[in-house]
């Protein structure tokens, strides 16, 4: 790394080579009001569990439709915006793209008295399709979105044409490794998050200690939350959804999936919920995606597995071209 003693040169080079969003992490309110998504954002307003909620989603229409729809479901530390490149290319191929922000995430409501479950998130997601009168869709879920996509497929199999799971979490039952933490304990842990702690986590479990500029915007967004007075609201929902992931495994039900399924697995990924709470001798056994992908493929009848060697938790960010080839070969 080169260092510049002339501060003006350093500033000019910084401005010239760094994206605008990475020059400074800006505080973000609970619903990312001042952050512009890549496509127009719509809101579904509904009542759930005595909460008046709004669920954000993007609806990307192709210029020349092929008659098919793909729904893209985000992960826990992300929101729908990180699907921008995927959505643009799919739209160019004629697909209509639906990109929700789950309740508790992104631009959607952050209810403080809500029982989060994958079944509830799946039902909320179906409500968007119902509103748009979309009867059938291809479903792609990344990370936690893979657990939502799995539950959605199990609950509403007739609404799913194909299922794609990109480095989903929940390929193993974290309760069999890690001790339980209460929601209050999880909340206190979330309140301690900073840009530095988020980056350290992602470097450790996502990127194998190699940072690239294209990772920065997705760090900036969640780090921006920690700088805003709204952060306790975000942190509380993060604690609730962590509890949901820990207590509601989907791995025992993969055998019940009957729709055509593709697994896209970056084999370097080591993401595992609660790894820090597991006994030292069990920690190295958690999040072994090079093994979990194969195991899951065997459980889902007729499924296809595409392994991407030496790639971490976000193939569609880290090695987009390889991700795209696997995805488009399956959906075209």
Automatic annotation (TrEMBL):
<keyword id="KW-0732">Signal</keyword>
<dbReference type="GO" id="GO:0016020">
    <property type="term" value="C:membrane"/>
</dbReference>
<keyword id="KW-0378">Hydrolase</keyword>
<dbReference type="InterPro" id="IPR000639">
    <property type="entry name" value="Epox_hydrolase-like"/>
</dbReference>
<dbReference type="Pfam" id="PF00561">
    <property type="entry name" value="Abhydrolase_1"/>
</dbReference>
<dbReference type="InterPro" id="IPR000073">
    <property type="entry name" value="AB_hydrolase_1"/>
</dbReference>
<dbReference type="GO" id="GO:0046464">
    <property type="term" value="P:acylglycerol catabolic process"/>
</dbReference>
<feature type="domain" description="AB hydrolase-1">
    <location>
        <begin position="69"/>
        <end position="272"/>
    </location>
</feature>
<dbReference type="InterPro" id="IPR029058">
    <property type="entry name" value="AB_hydrolase_fold"/>
</dbReference>
<dbReference type="GO" id="GO:0047372">
    <property type="term" value="F:monoacylglycerol lipase activity"/>
</dbReference>
<feature type="signal peptide">
    <location>
        <begin position="1"/>
        <end position="22"/>
    </location>
</feature>
<protein>
    <submittedName>
        <fullName>Alpha/beta hydrolase</fullName>
    </submittedName>
</protein>
<dbReference type="InterPro" id="IPR050266">
    <property type="entry name" value="AB_hydrolase_sf"/>
</dbReference>
